[in-house]
Specification:
It is built from 8 helices and no strands. The protein is mainly alpha-helical. It has a single domain, classed as Four Helix Bundle (Hemerythrin (Met), subunit A) (Up-down Bundle), CATH 1.20.120.1450. α2 runs antiparallel to α7, α5 runs antiparallel to α6 and α6 crosses α7.
Protein backbone atom coordinates (compact mmCIF):
# COMPACT_ATOMS: atom_id res chain seq x y z
CA UNK A 1 0.00 0.00 0.00
CA UNK A 2 1.49 3.36 -0.97
CA UNK A 3 1.65 6.27 1.47
CA UNK A 4 -1.48 7.98 0.09
CA UNK A 5 -3.55 4.81 0.45
CA UNK A 6 -2.20 4.37 3.99
CA UNK A 7 -3.07 7.99 4.82
CA UNK A 8 -6.59 7.55 3.42
CA UNK A 9 -7.02 4.30 5.36
CA UNK A 10 -5.97 6.00 8.60
CA UNK A 11 -8.51 8.74 7.91
CA UNK A 12 -11.26 6.20 7.22
CA UNK A 13 -10.59 4.73 10.65
CA UNK A 14 -10.93 8.21 12.17
CA UNK A 15 -14.19 8.75 10.26
CA UNK A 16 -15.55 5.49 11.70
CA UNK A 17 -14.56 6.48 15.22
CA UNK A 18 -15.65 10.14 15.07
CA UNK A 19 -18.93 10.48 13.19
CA UNK A 20 -18.60 14.24 12.69
CA UNK A 21 -15.09 13.90 11.23
CA UNK A 22 -14.72 13.99 7.46
CA UNK A 23 -11.22 13.92 6.04
CA UNK A 24 -10.58 16.89 3.78
CA UNK A 25 -9.42 16.26 0.24
CA UNK A 26 -5.67 15.95 -0.19
CA UNK A 27 -4.20 18.83 -2.16
CA UNK A 28 -3.34 17.07 -5.45
CA UNK A 29 -0.38 19.37 -6.12
CA UNK A 30 1.14 18.60 -2.71
CA UNK A 31 0.48 14.87 -3.19
CA UNK A 32 2.23 14.88 -6.56
CA UNK A 33 5.25 16.66 -5.13
CA UNK A 34 5.45 14.57 -1.96
CA UNK A 35 5.26 11.36 -3.99
CA UNK A 36 8.64 12.24 -5.55
CA UNK A 37 10.44 13.18 -2.34
CA UNK A 38 13.19 10.95 -1.01
CA UNK A 39 11.80 10.71 2.53
CA UNK A 40 10.11 7.92 4.46
CA UNK A 41 6.46 7.15 3.82
CA UNK A 42 5.61 8.26 7.36
CA UNK A 43 7.15 11.68 6.75
CA UNK A 44 5.22 11.87 3.47
CA UNK A 45 2.00 11.06 5.36
CA UNK A 46 2.93 13.63 8.00
CA UNK A 47 3.28 16.28 5.29
CA UNK A 48 -0.15 15.38 3.88
CA UNK A 49 -1.71 15.48 7.35
CA UNK A 50 -0.29 18.81 8.44
CA UNK A 51 -0.88 20.42 5.04
CA UNK A 52 -4.51 19.26 5.12
CA UNK A 53 -4.93 20.44 8.71
CA UNK A 54 -3.50 23.87 8.04
CA UNK A 55 -5.53 24.33 4.85
CA UNK A 56 -8.70 23.20 6.58
CA UNK A 57 -8.06 25.61 9.44
CA UNK A 58 -8.41 28.41 6.90
CA UNK A 59 -12.03 27.38 6.29
CA UNK A 60 -13.21 27.62 9.90
CA UNK A 61 -16.29 29.80 10.32
CA UNK A 62 -18.65 30.35 13.21
CA UNK A 63 -21.14 27.86 11.76
CA UNK A 64 -18.66 24.99 11.28
CA UNK A 65 -16.35 25.69 14.21
CA UNK A 66 -17.00 22.51 16.23
CA UNK A 67 -16.48 20.02 13.41
CA UNK A 68 -13.68 22.04 11.81
CA UNK A 69 -11.72 22.20 15.05
CA UNK A 70 -12.18 18.44 15.53
CA UNK A 71 -10.89 17.89 12.00
CA UNK A 72 -7.82 20.07 12.44
CA UNK A 73 -7.08 18.53 15.84
CA UNK A 74 -7.33 14.97 14.51
CA UNK A 75 -5.16 15.76 11.50
CA UNK A 76 -2.58 17.41 13.75
CA UNK A 77 -2.58 14.36 16.02
CA UNK A 78 -2.09 12.17 12.95
CA UNK A 79 0.84 14.38 11.93
CA UNK A 80 2.54 13.86 15.29
CA UNK A 81 1.84 10.11 15.20
CA UNK A 82 3.47 9.81 11.79
CA UNK A 83 6.42 11.90 12.92
CA UNK A 84 6.99 9.56 15.87
CA UNK A 85 7.16 6.35 13.78
CA UNK A 86 10.22 6.19 13.74
CA UNK A 87 11.25 9.43 15.37
CA UNK A 88 13.68 11.52 13.35
CA UNK A 89 14.58 14.61 15.40
CA UNK A 90 15.93 16.56 12.41
CA UNK A 91 12.81 16.09 10.30
CA UNK A 92 10.60 16.70 13.32
CA UNK A 93 12.35 20.01 13.94
CA UNK A 94 12.09 21.00 10.25
CA UNK A 95 8.37 20.32 10.00
CA UNK A 96 7.34 21.74 13.37
CA UNK A 97 9.30 24.90 12.50
CA UNK A 98 7.46 24.95 9.16
CA UNK A 99 4.13 24.93 11.04
CA UNK A 100 5.24 27.92 13.12
CA UNK A 101 6.56 29.73 10.06
CA UNK A 102 3.42 29.12 8.04
CA UNK A 103 1.25 30.51 10.84
CA UNK A 104 3.40 33.65 10.94
CA UNK A 105 3.33 34.05 7.16
CA UNK A 106 -0.45 33.57 7.03
CA UNK A 107 -0.94 36.26 9.67
CA UNK A 108 1.40 38.61 7.79
CA UNK A 109 -0.40 37.89 4.51
CA UNK A 110 -3.79 38.56 6.09
CA UNK A 111 -2.51 41.85 7.48
CA UNK A 112 -0.49 43.10 4.50
CA UNK A 113 -1.61 41.21 1.39
CA UNK A 114 2.08 40.77 0.52
CA UNK A 115 2.04 38.51 -2.55
CA UNK A 116 5.58 37.27 -1.93
CA UNK A 117 4.27 35.38 1.11
CA UNK A 118 2.08 33.09 -1.01
CA UNK A 119 5.05 31.00 -2.14
CA UNK A 120 6.28 30.61 1.43
CA UNK A 121 2.84 29.66 2.73
CA UNK A 122 2.16 27.11 -0.01
CA UNK A 123 5.58 25.46 0.16
CA UNK A 124 6.20 25.51 3.91
CA UNK A 125 6.04 21.73 4.31
CA UNK A 126 7.91 20.73 1.16
CA UNK A 127 10.59 23.43 1.10
CA UNK A 128 12.77 21.58 3.63
CA UNK A 129 13.04 18.66 1.20
CA UNK A 130 13.35 20.10 -2.31
CA UNK A 131 14.10 23.03 -4.58
CA UNK A 132 11.32 25.54 -5.03
CA UNK A 133 12.31 25.94 -8.69
CA UNK A 134 10.66 22.59 -9.48
CA UNK A 135 7.88 22.95 -12.07
CA UNK A 136 5.32 21.19 -9.85
CA UNK A 137 6.15 23.60 -7.02
CA UNK A 138 5.66 26.56 -9.36
CA UNK A 139 2.27 25.11 -10.33
CA UNK A 140 1.36 24.65 -6.65
CA UNK A 141 2.07 28.33 -6.01
CA UNK A 142 0.17 29.46 -9.12
CA UNK A 143 -2.88 27.38 -8.14
CA UNK A 144 -2.99 28.73 -4.59
CA UNK A 145 -6.40 29.90 -3.42
CA UNK A 146 -4.54 32.80 -1.79
CA UNK A 147 -4.05 34.27 -5.25
CA UNK A 148 -7.83 34.72 -5.43
CA UNK A 149 -7.83 36.81 -2.26
CA UNK A 150 -5.66 39.48 -3.85
CA UNK A 151 -7.83 40.11 -6.92
Amino acid sequence: MDFIAQYQHDNQLLEQRYTSYKCPEINPYIASIVRRLDISSNIKKAVLAIDSSMRYADTITHSNKATALLTTDLLSALFYRYMAEPFNPEQFKLLTQAVKDQNIWKAQFKETGDLSLIARIETAFIAPFMSLDDTDVVTLIQQSSLNNLTK
